[in-house]
Amino acid sequence: LYVGTLREHKGIELLIETAAELPDGVGVEIVGGGPERESLEALAAHADLDDIVTFHGWVDHADLPAYYNEADVFIHPGHWPEPFNRTLLEAMQYDCALVVSEIGAPPWVVADCGVSFERWSVYDLRRHLTTVVTVTELRRSLQQNCADRLTEVLPERVISEIDAQYHS
Questions:
Q1: Contact 36, 6 (CB under 8 A)
Q2: What is the C-alpha to C-alpha distance for residues 95 and 157, in angstroms, rounded to an integer?
Q3: CA 14 to CA 117: how far, in whole Å?
Q4: pLDDT at 85 (0 to 100)
Q5: CA within 20 to 30 Å of 17's CA: 30, 36, 64, 123, which one?
Q6: Alpha helices in 47-85 (DSSP H)
């Protein structure tokens, strides 16, 4: 599952390129709208991935739980150093294992709820995503870590830690 804006820096093209070589029965659900939607749909169609990659378009926030509940893995393939992505927390709320780009805050945010891949690398994304999908024990372990990690990134806790660092 990917949820977010469909913009060039979000790395969705990597996810689509990866989809061609995922294990049988694994589908990619893309939820969101944006200026790159048409080109991403064309990329998926050109690669003959219409039966693997599904574009759902923009979805009202109240309807997102249905997508998260159906997903085992959440992918954040961004190219730029995003500071803190809300969808990572949403995915953890629904016990999704996470696969995130190594750049920016996502690896810190997901901690032991996910794995990081080398940004821009289709090979590395495919390798990590395939491992999380096929190694049930790993995926379940990542999913089971979500509740504890969410308590560690509560705004009250993070803000007080930043404040303490600032004052020291």
A1: yes
A2: 21
A3: 11
A4: 87
A5: 64
A6: 64-70
Alpha-carbon distance of 23 to 19, in angstroms, equals 9
Please indicate, yes or no, whether the overall pTM of this predicted structure exceeds 0.85. yes
d(CA 56, CA 6): 11
The C-alpha atoms of residue 17 and residue 52 are separated, in whole angstroms, by: 11
Pair 102, 118: CB distance under 8 Å: yes
**Helices 122-134 and 12-19, interaxial angle, to 10°?**
60
Separation between Cα atoms, residue 115 and residue 102, nearest integer Å: 9
Break the chain down into helix, strand, coil percent, rounded to 5.
Answer: 55, 15, 35
- Helix (H) / strand (E) element for 128: namely helix 122-134
What confidence score (pLDDT) does residue 79 get? Answer: 93
Element (H, E) at 163: helix 155-167
Q: How many CA atoms lie within 13 A of 150 on its CB side?
A: 18
Phi, psi of 65 (to 5 degrees): -55, -35
Instruction: Confirm if 37 and 55 have CB atoms less than 8 A apart.
Output: yes
The series of mean pLDDT values per 10 residues for the chain, 168 residues long, is: 96 96 95 97 96 97 97 96 91 97 95 97 97 97 96 77 76
Tracing tokens 């709320």 back to the chain, one arrives at 93
